[in-house]
Amino acid sequence: MPQFARPFLAASLLPAFLTPRPISWAFPSLESLLELFPPFLLAVPKKKVSHSRKAMRSANKGLKDKHNLVHCPGCGSPKLAHHLCSNCYSSLSRAWKAKARQEGSSPTSGVPSVVE
């Protein structure tokens, strides 16, 4: 029985951070905690921000006007510059799918590929 009364590992064999130490429940004082934070972290608003001031601050976050609108050279409908015209693309897509259906193959096989 005395064999089981001994601890499994002696304290001298354990590293320093694993040795048992008494637990200290002392909390730091409020003054020492306030020294850790800079003053701007403790800043709070003095009064409620009114609705009109909030609206004025967020007025510049609205949607901006588009300046890159051009007319499609094919159909004349408005489109974004350097983008495909949705009207022309849909008509081309319908034509490709109709041609593929006439040939009896899948609709995507009639679409011309970029890499051949």
TrEMBL record:
GO terms for biological process: translation. It comes from the Eukaryota. The keyword Cell membrane does not apply. It holds the Pfam family Ribosomal_L32p. One of its GO terms (molecular function) is structural constituent of ribosome. It is found in: Mitochondrion. Keywords: Mitochondrion, Ribonucleoprotein, Ribosomal protein, Transit peptide. InterPro entries: Mitoribosomal_protein_bL32, Ribosomal_bL32, Ribosomal_zn-bd. GO terms for cellular component: mitochondrial large ribosomal subunit. Belongs to the bacterial ribosomal protein bL32 family. This is Large ribosomal subunit protein bL32m. It comes from Grifola frondosa (Maitake).
